[in-house]
């Protein structure tokens, strides 16, 4: 069997909030949506958001950040510092820029409104500075 990743689905508290976050900050386009579902075109695959079932929503507080072990990684086509600063100016929670020895990319993690981790990944340019 050969397989390719088509869609990554997240169960979320507020589909509208999360959908708007990724459309606004990453320019993803909406393919499908209703009150409990949104499907976004994220380039070579899709990202979907499905509302958590009511019986589960009743068990968590409004301000609770969901815990998961998934990180969305987005390769970007602009300088990582510029991208980070733009997101910070829009009150997106961002961590520091980092890299690893003998690794060709700069990395910077952030959090969406429900606490899902995403990472920006920007190719190092020859002679690029350290952050």
- Indicate the low-confidence ranges by residue numbers: none
Shape: globular
Average per-residue pLDDT, rounded, comes to 89
Q: Helix fraction?
A: 10-25%
CATH architecture of the largest domain, by name, is Roll
Q: What gap, in angstroms, lies between the N and C termini? A: 43 Å
* Helix/strand class: alpha/beta
Q: How many separate structural domains?
A: 2
CATH C-level name of the largest domain: Alpha Beta
CATH topology of the largest domain: 2,3-Dihydroxybiphenyl 1,2-Dioxygenase, domain 1
Percentage of β-strand residues: 35-45%
Number of strands: 8
Explain what you see.
This protein starts with 6 loop residues before the first strand and ends in an 8-residue tail after the last strand. It is built from three helices and eight strands; from the N terminus they run βαβββαβαβββ. The protein folds into two domains: 1-53, 2,3-Dihydroxybiphenyl 1,2-Dioxygenase, domain 1; 67-131, Roll (2,3-Dihydroxybiphenyl 1,2-Dioxygenase, domain 1), CATH 3.10.180.10. The longest helix has 12 residues, at 15-26. Helix content is 20%, strand content 37%. It has helices at residues 15-26, 54-57, 80-89, and strands at 7-12, 29-34, 37-41, 46-51, 71-75, 93-98, 105-111, 117-123. With 131 residues, it is of the alpha/beta class. The strands form two sheets. Strands 1-4-3-2 form a four-stranded mixed sheet, covered by helices on one side. Strands 5-8-7-6 form a four-stranded mixed sheet, covered by helices on one side.
